[in-house]
Amino acid sequence: MQTVRVSIDRSFAIGDTDPRLFGAFVEHLGRCVYGGMYEPGHPTADAKGFRRDVLDLVRELAPTIMRYPGGNFVSGYNWEDGVGPVDKRPRRLDLAWMSKETNAFGTNEFIDWCRAAGIEPMLAVNLGTRDGDAARRLVEYCNFPGDTELSDLRRAHGWPEPHGVKFWCLGNEMDGPWQMETKTAEEYGRKATEAAKMMKWVDPTIELAACGSSGRTMPTFGAWEDTVLEHTFDHVEYISLHTYLNDYAGDTAAFLASPDLMDSFIDEVVAIVDAVAARRRSSKRIMLSFDEWNVWYRTRRRSEGRTKLGWPVAPDILEEVYNMKDALAFGGACISLLNHADRVRCACLAQLVNAIAPIMTETGGPAWRQTIFHPFAQFSNLGRGRVLRAQVDSPTYAATYHDPRGTADLAFPLPAVPYVKAAAVHDQAGRTVTLFLLNRHLDQPAPIEIDAHGFGALGLGEALELRDDDLSATNTKEVPDRVRPRALTGVRVEGGRISATLGPASWNVIRLSA
């Protein structure tokens, strides 16, 4: 491959990353909660039943905000079921995942877990089977100091101080026919507006995200966002986006190109929300909350183990085993989020443990890192700061990405995909510049030269690559570190020029002192 050239300049920035850009997601789905993060009786469990081995991995992964309790689950969830004495909590049928919910883990346990992990909590309210009244009551239960029925109930349950939850989601994927009590955009917009009003009357300091369409391939996409924001514009700060990258077609080159469609998706939603503002002659800018994103395809369809018969408790569903190829596409998605840091202010990897997750556990046994764990940990730990505008001059290739929706197979032609995808983050406080580099060429290394202007002489801090000759390589309980970051050798730094060779099909992180 001819030399790839990247240019960055200290003075040309996209924006500063919001700490919430590096979030994740916990849903009552499969073994995410029970047998994953919460397992009383496990050898590593603390007094509250939280698995300390999982907490250790979560701290290494370094998510900053955690969405809970759903997801599809929230559209049928009664928050009152999950508070109070555990032995008096009802067992319910969960229609989202055809499971039985014990409610042993609820809102207060989640808040305690977030405090233990050092993570900001994000709560979603049920706007499927319930309404704004239930939502504002949950805000009062969580955030009001005391001397009211619901705040005193929280205190009686053992949590004397308010939880102080600041970020709230107004339902989940309400245009999806799989959702309990699916809504039209008009129906949802009106319901979300009334919920938002009451929630903010209880606590004016909270921030709210309205539901965007369930995905870019939905027939409702675009018109949904426009209509919903016509209702909610004055009451919310964010609109949500969801996407899951797939390789149903078995086309690796197209799969690795798919993060570029995330870029287009983000740009389209920004255009829609700004058009709503323009019609109102408003200077307010609605920000984006990309609160579900990941690679997901092997366990996504109902025929592929999406649910299990018999209404089991915490069934082993959606336990996607990620390989090296998935980690590459995943890393590309991280770069897409960084390169839209000016408008994507919050994002949540879906999910955290076992169900389409970077962390896997065996109930009663060990926990280990999946392949996608490593790009996220580097993205979160090293991606905080000012994202610089990276100009990339790279050879390109053509691909067609397929994203099935129901019986339709939607094809997205990508005529000029750069082999190298890049992001650069300047941490002014830490005096570092971190380069995130994805080589999508399956067979050829990519010689690369990066010119960094405005920094003076740079020094090499660390250079790591994630790659494996076998793109199907996975991490398992028996071999948990087959795919892991290793030293990227041969990196040269001379003044403001960095030269390296990126291995074929590789994710690379170069950290420089500035």
Q: Total helix count?
A: 10
| Oligomeric state as shown | single chain
Q: Poorly predicted ranges (pLDDT <50, ≥5 residues)?
A: none
Shape: globular
What's the number of extended β-strand segments? 26
State the helical fraction: 10-25%
**Cα-atom radius of gyration:** 23 Å
First-residue to last-residue Cα separation: 30 Å
- Main beta-sheet annotation: 8 strands, parallel, barrel
Strand content: 25-35%
User: What is the averaged pLDDT score?
Assistant: 97
Q: What strand order characterises the main sheet?
A: 3-4-7-8-9-10-11-12
What is the structural class?
alpha/beta
Please outline the helices and strands.
Blueprint: E1 4-9, E2 13-16, E3 23-25, H1 52-61, E4 65-68, E5 92-94, E6 99-101, H2 107-117, E7 120-125, H3 132-143, H4 149-156, E8 167-170, H5 185-202, E9 207-210, H6 223-232, E10 238-245, H7 252-257, H8 259-279, E11 287-295, H9 324-338, E12 344-350, E13 359-361, E14 367-369, H10 373-382, E15 386-388, E16 391-393, E17 396-405, E18 408-418, E19 420-427, E20 432-439, E21 446-453, E22 459-466, E23 486-487, E24 492-494, E25 497-502, E26 506-513
Parallel strand pairs: 1-21, 3-4, 3-12, 4-7, 7-8, 8-9, 9-10, 10-11, 11-12
Antiparallel strand pairs: 1-16, 2-15, 5-6, 13-14, 15-19, 17-18, 19-20, 20-26, 21-25, 22-23, 22-26, 24-25
Helix pairs in contact: 3-4, 3-5, 5-6, 6-8, 8-9, 9-10
